[in-house]
Each structure stands twice: as structure tokens, then as C-alpha cells.
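[Meeting: bench + compute handoff]

Bench side (C.D.) handed over the final construct sequence. Compute side (W.E.) agreed to return the predicted structure before the next meeting so the bench team could plan truncations. Sequence as handed over:
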Amino acid sequence: MASGRLWIAPTSLGVTGRNRAPRLSPPNPNRGALARSLQQSTPIGSICHDPPMPMSEEHKAALAEGRKQARAIKAYLKAIASRKPGRPVTKDGLQSRLARISQKLEKTDNPLEEIDLIQSRLDIERAMADFEDAKDMADLEAGFVEHAASYSERKGISYSAWRQYGVPANVLRSAGIKETRRR
């Protein structure tokens, strides 16, 4: 700049990067010197971080209670979301469908029909495994009822939000969550 002319960074297109204007000043040779010196002399993490503060037993208990509430509510909400409208699927219904498919597999000579039946059998077996692994809905509902009121209060979740998600009104009444009406 001593000569009174502007310095423009040399590039093939006259710009220094995507959608950027050209540089109007020469590069600073000392740029980043502090950062380089800190990297060389200081172990990682010792500049910005204070040692962790110990948690009180009350705080630890409150965190554990919050996690317990969240697990119970999440399990119930997942169960509600996985329910499909229509006739409920029972274990006996799945077993009878599996028996019918096995009989059809023995009788068929068509390879395309056979592959379809094999896939249907695998789907039913997977559904039976899921059915056996799933917790009883009554247990999930009991966990929701136990924790929903305090969770709702702590998180600011309204009756309407629970209803829009699909939680039945009688379950919310059992949990002690009052209906809110806007006028």
C-alpha cells in the first residue's frame, strides 16, 4: 500500500473463492501466529475448559427420575404410534395364517407363487417375534399414567398436544392431565 496502488490477490479468475470478492489488501504474514504458538505449547483442552463441577446427590437423583419418566412415556408413545387401525393382530391369528401358508407352500408347483409364500411366511414369523417381544400395552399405559403429569408440567406439554399425538382422553384423565380449553 506504500505505492498507493491496490493489491489484488492473484488467481486465474480474479476471485479468491466461490462467490467472493477479490482481496484488496496484502496478506498478513503474522496471521494465525498466536493460534500456532498455543497449539505448540498447550495441551488440548486446557485453555477453555474448567474442571467439571461435582453434582450433588439431589441433582443426580433428579436426572435419574427425568430419564425414568422419559423412558416410560417414550415406550407408551411408540406403542401408540405402532398401532394400526382396524382389527387388532393376535398371536393366534398369526399362527393360523402361518399354518395356511405352510399348507399352500406344500401344494404349489409355481416358483413365483412359492417365493411369494416364503416371503409371507418370513413376514409373519417376524411379526410373531415382535409380538412376543412387545410389552403388554397395559403395563406401558400404567407407566405413562404414573409419569405423564409431572413430565407434562416440567416440559410444558398441554392436554391438546397429547391428544393430537393420539393419547386417548381416558388415559390423560387417569394421569391427572386436565383438559385445557381456549376461548
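W.E. noted at the follow-up: The longest helix spans residues 57-82. C.D. will use this when planning the next construct.
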